[in-house]
Design goal:
The complex is a heterodimer. By secondary structure, chain A is of the alpha+beta class. Chain A has two domains: 1-32; 35-161, Immunoglobulin-like, CATH 2.60.40. Chain A is built from one helix and eight strands. In chain A, strands 1, 2, 5 and 6 form a four-stranded antiparallel beta sheet that branches. In chain A, β3 (77-88) and β4 form a beta hairpin. The N and C termini of chain A lie far apart (80 Å). By secondary structure, chain B is mainly alpha-helical. Chain B is 60% helix and 0% strand. Chain B contains six helices and no strands. In chain B, α1 packs across α2 and α3 (68-96) packs antiparallel against α4. The chains are: A alpha+beta, B mainly alpha.
Chain lengths: 167, 162
């Protein structure tokens, strides 16, 4: 504490260290949040379903996605990234996951929503396995914090099936 | 050439200044119960104006502007206030569920602490060191460095006579 600069340095160093500790504690407090989200997806329509010239199947869907992710938000949450994936099994791959739609939810108020949309990203198979295929639609979400650890979870919705013939 | 030797002598004077400044019995870290056994400290020989400027202009006064007790008070105040501000900010932010409020309270608290503890306010200068009179100091500074120890001890004898 010998000079102005020395004291300023000491204060700033201790200040930054304490700030790091506060942020760690804020992140730790996220563990005490037990979210109870819900989601529901309906396939409103199969717009088209064909085999591309490259030999891969492609399908276009219209989806109605409704979800309530409000309980995943804490005081340390910056945004929640949610995406919907179609999951199915083929002879070639034990698990195929294809992202159909995603969204960034910036605040708690916008976390409860219902949207009616065509799939944002194309559902293209590796091969020609989609006819009559049973698949799951899984809503994944990543809770992105202001500081610290990111939490990720999902809801699996089963029971969807693609048409047997091309349209 | 004469300036060169003046410079060398002034270094000697400066070293005795530092020896006094670092003495354990006037340091805040030295336990109080041990000071009784020590003899009173020799009074410091303050470097003259020319020697001070020759060495470094900013040492024209005690570098920090605070005395020892003041430095200790400043450090303690800084540490305690910082922890208190951090706890207050976290608890408030947690209760209101606002990360932003936590950051604002903390930043404001740090600025407040900087204003209070970093600047050398008079309250940090309530126990200043006692310097010798200038005329006596001049006598000491004119002697060569190797006789500084003898001069310091004779200075001690002078003070005990009083």
């Amino acid at each position: 504490m010998h000079s102005f600069g020395y004291r300023l340095n000491a204060l700033l160093t201790l200040g930054v260290t304490t700030l790091a500790l506060m942020c760690a504690m804020a992140s730790f407090s996220d563990n005490f949040n037990h979210p109870s989200p819900s989601a529901n997806v309906q396939v409103m329509n199969v717009n088209w379903f064909h085999k591309q010239s490259s030999g891969n199947d492609e399908v276009s869907l219209t989806l109605k996605i409704s979800a309530d992710l409000q309980s995943t938000f804490t005081w340390n949450t910056k945004q929640v990234f949610a995406f919907l994936a179609a999951e199915y099994e083929t002879p070639g791959n034990s698990l195929n996951q294809i992202s159909l739609w995603d969204s960034i939810i910036p605040s708690k108020e916008r976390a409860k929503f219902t949207i009616h949309t065509k799939n944002k990203y194309r559902l293209i198979d590796q091969g020609s396995n989609l006819r009559g295929k049973e698949f799951n639609l899984t809503l994944h979400w990543h809770v992105m914090p202001k500081t610290g650890k990111m939490f990720a979870d999902k809801i699996v919705m089963t029971g969807y099936r693609l048409p047997v013939d091309y349209r | 050439m004469e300036c060169f030797w003046r410079y060398i002598r002034s270094l000697g004077a400066f070293s005795s200044y530092y020896k006094v400044v670092l003495r354990e019995d006037i340091s805040p870290l030295f336990p109080r119960h041990c000071t009784a056994a020590l003899s009173p400290p020799p009074l410091a020989v303050r470097p003259t104006e020319t020697e001070q400027i020759g060495l470094c202009p900013i040492f024209s006064r005690f570098p920090s502007g605070m005395d020892w007790q003041g430095q200790k008070l400043s450090e303690q105040l800084m540490q305690i206030m910082l922890v208190a501000v951090a706890v207050a900010a976290y608890v408030t932010g947690f209760m209101i569920e606002s990360f932003r409020i936590m950051m604002l309270i903390y930043a404001g608290g740090v600025v407040l602490i900087a204003l209070i503890t970093v600047q050398n306010w008079p309250l940090f200068n309530r126990h200043p060191l006692k310097w010798l009179e200038p005329s006596v100091a001049d006598e000491y500074s004119k002697e060569p460095p190797q006789q500084q120890a003898a001069a310091a001890s004779s200075g001690k004898k002078k003070s005990t006579k009083k």
